[in-house]
Amino acid sequence: MNKIARRKFMQLSAAAAAGYFMQPSREALASELPHLTLDDLMAQAMKYTHDASTVDPATRNNPATDQDCANCDLIQGIEGDAWRPCQIFPGKAVAAGGWCSVWQPKA
User: Fold this and answer.
1) How far is CA 30 from the centre of its chain?
2) Where do the structural domains in the chain lie, given as residue ranges?
């Protein structure tokens, strides 16, 4: 079983709670959502970047070179879209080629 640091657990819990309470009455299209910016506080806390290739694989929780938002279990929306909604960043669209520290492989 993976050990999760207390700080990481609190960040994930806060993100999950925010997502739960901010559910829209209908599913928003990614084209309607504002793009997540790098100066967003949640983006900074999750080490989000628009380009996964800029992240050193050795610094990731699960080191692997093929991690990006498009192959993360938390991304939503239509496969192939350049910007898609993400469960971690409610109300914002993330770059499919992006990456954050909460990345998890698709089940």
Assistant:
1) 14
2) 28-107
pTM for the predicted model, two decimal places: 0.69
Label each residue of the chain as H, E or C.
Answer: CCCCCHHHHHHHHHHHHHHHHCCCCCCCCHHHCCECCCCCHHHHHCCCECCHHHCCHHHCCCCCCCCCHHHECCECCCCCCCEEEECCCCCCEEECCCECCCCCECC
28-107: CATH topology is High-Potential Iron-Sulfur Protein; Chain A (4.10.490)
pLDDT digits (tens, 9 = 90+) for 39-76: 999 999 999 999 999 988 888 877 677 899 999 999 99
| Higher pLDDT among residues 103 and 18, named by residue | 103
